[in-house]
Task: structure prediction
Amino acid sequence: MTTGILALSLAELADAIRTGKVSSVETTEAVLTALEGRGRALNATARLWSDYALSEAARCDQERARGRLRGPLHGVPMAHKDMFYRQGQIAGQGSRIRADFQAARTTTVLTRLDQAGAIDVGRLNMVEFALGVTGHNNHTGTPRNAHDPERITGGSTSGGATAVAAGLIPATLGSDTGGSIRIPASFCGLVGIKPTYGRVSRAGAMTLSFSLDHVGPLARTSRDAALVLQAIAGHDPDDTTTSRLPVPVYTAGLERGVGGLRLFHATSGLGCEVDPVVDAAVRDAIRALAEDGASVTEGGLENIAAITAIRRLVLMAECGAVHRAHVQQRHDDFVPQTLARMQPGFALGAVDYLSAMRSRGRALDHFCATVFSKADLVVLPTCPVQVPRIADTDTGGDARFVETANAIGQLIGLSNWLGLPAVSVPVGLDGNRMPIGLQIIGRPFAEALVLQAAAAVERVFGPFRPSGFALAGT
Result:
């Protein structure tokens, strides 16, 4: 029965608890057991709050018996990246420096998940301070990919991605400053959506780069991602960057398909070569969307390499501002990979940073005018490379590591810099039978449309199934 519960999608699990087919207590027990067992083996689990979680699950079952449901996720257990604060609990942020940090408040997105009825069972491992796309962390242990434990998960939502892919939890929250939702979604075979900048509050969560950070879900299906996004989206007075635009019903259009939509397949101007196996899988997916009624044009993106470079400059400057005192006082307590990505920011001047920030609005206007005047969605690979092995990328903070990290994230930063909604959805396997992701980018606040297209892809490639490796022994 445990394996059966863990194999359910978020939507299926919420329905099973709501209708009494399973209880919240037995579901929560199954999740806690899986996270304590296979979750530790995958280096996914940071810490669990078993007593709290089981107590909340019992309350949910009692409330359901009285005919009361907290919300659409009533009684569903979830665990999240170790950067989302819960008042009074440790939020270690993948670091030694914050290993004993106790949160003074609860992150807004967690409060909203609480209101939707979800149960927070604990925290999952992550890249130190969320700065890294490979998933490496010498402090807490590098999480291992549920599809092949010798390969990376991608980062920085590394523990969360492999836990969902392993079937240990139905969905999780991640952050995306330069791909930290979409890269692990691609490498672990999940749906991961980075919403529009301002659609989801970041209040009460760890800051990496205050002008680039986004919060969003990783899940097994587009519907699951839509359910979580529905719960967390919307204006928050505690985050002045959040939009007051109404939040649509994200599940409403998932069955519409892509008939009549215009897709722009970005094939040049990417600033990198796309691995032929990845390119073939992406083209197969785009052909399937065309067969579903979408029109597809191919062409180049302007200045993506320049935009990527500007995004990295801003990230390094803002990250450096957040962590300069930590580096000065506790340099040796950082993971080498973190320092390798962080240190360039300390040499940047204010003129360079301000010039970059001034260009951002113009860049968004230009992109929307030139690209979205002829297309509804942009499609391209999430990552241009096949999933690397941990051993091949475990080179400390040397130039090889930085080069590899930059290659993995080359096609990601565009939507972070422009603040556009972007989803990664699985579209096949590479030569090592590891997942490949298709990235779908939309206009500002077009989350519903990118999820609609992702759902159309899923109907072609079939529903996600948790990895057999990860489920073994649960």
Notes: The two ends are 11 Å apart (CA to CA). Residues 469-474 have pLDDT under 50 and may be disordered. Residues 304-330 form the longest helix (27 residues). Residues 25 and 57 are 5 Å apart (CA to CA).
